[in-house]
Amino acid sequence: MNGYGDGPPRFSRPRRRGPRGAQSLAPRGGDRPRHPARRQSCPPELREPFVEARDFLAGLIAVLGLPARLGFGGIDPARDGQQITIDVHALDPRGPARYRDRDDHDDGLAILIGKHGATLDALSAVTNAVMHRGEQRDLFFTVDVEGYRERRVATLRSIATRCATKVIHERVAVELEPMPPAERRIIHLALAAHRDVATESTGEGRDRRVVIMPRGSVLPGPEEDDESFD
């Protein structure tokens, strides 16, 4: 995870009420959130663990001195239970255009994303480690900042489609840049049912990447794919 830097500025408790399930980390006289909160609330039976996880994450973000608003981002099925998304949105005094499409820029809340969402994954892992010390073993949490994950999934699917077209037209294998397991899995799933191309992972550790090739081709060497499609 990225370093937390120097001591944070002073924060006041939020004075405005947001939608149910949201918490604001606004400085004194903080500005309105740039993005409207999603009109959904946490199911009552999951309200207590969600609030605990949200407040823990809010404390981590406050250490960074980043004015932010945290809220319930939805619930999805997970392999061993349910997964709750905690949405993080910026409270930016410089206006709504500053952060919207700049995931790779080091301002706003981009420090919470990291390269390929690595810091988001670390925040999610820490939050789950804290929450799983009790009985909530079948409830998982994922952190999202300004809708980054949804946009990143769309980007990866677009990359997969474009590279598949190149493979078909040129009859060559295309090797993508190194990606974390979750992102490699998105590429694999995007092309799993494709009639003309296949995907495999190659490399080790942080250098592991997806190769898209004509269906029926075999990568040289004893490579084994580590992604699960369950």
Structural topology:
Blueprint: E1 23-25, H1 47-63, E2 68-78, E3 81-90, H2 118-131, E4 139-145, H3 148-170, E5 174-175, H4 181-191, E6 197-202, E7 209-214
Parallel strand pairs: 3-4
Antiparallel strand pairs: 1-2, 2-3, 5-7, 6-7
Q: How is this structure best summarized?
A:
With 230 residues, the protein is an alpha+beta fold. 28% of the residues lie in helices and 20% in strands.
Walk me through the structure:
The structure is a single chain. By secondary structure, the chain is of the alpha+beta class. It has two domains: 23-146, 2-Layer Sandwich (GMP Synthetase, Chain A, domain 3), CATH 3.30.300.20; 151-214, Ribosomal Protein S8, Chain: A, domain 1. The chain is 28% helix and 20% strand. The chain is built from four helices and seven strands. The strands form two sheets. It has a four-stranded mixed beta sheet. The protein has a three-stranded antiparallel beta sheet with strand order 5-7-6. Strand 2 and strand 3 form a beta hairpin. Helix 1 (47-63) crosses helix 2 (118-131) and helix 3 crosses helix 4. The chain starts with 22 loop residues before the first strand and ends in a 16-residue tail after the last strand. Residues 1-20, 26-38, 95-106 and 222-230 have low confidence and may be disordered.
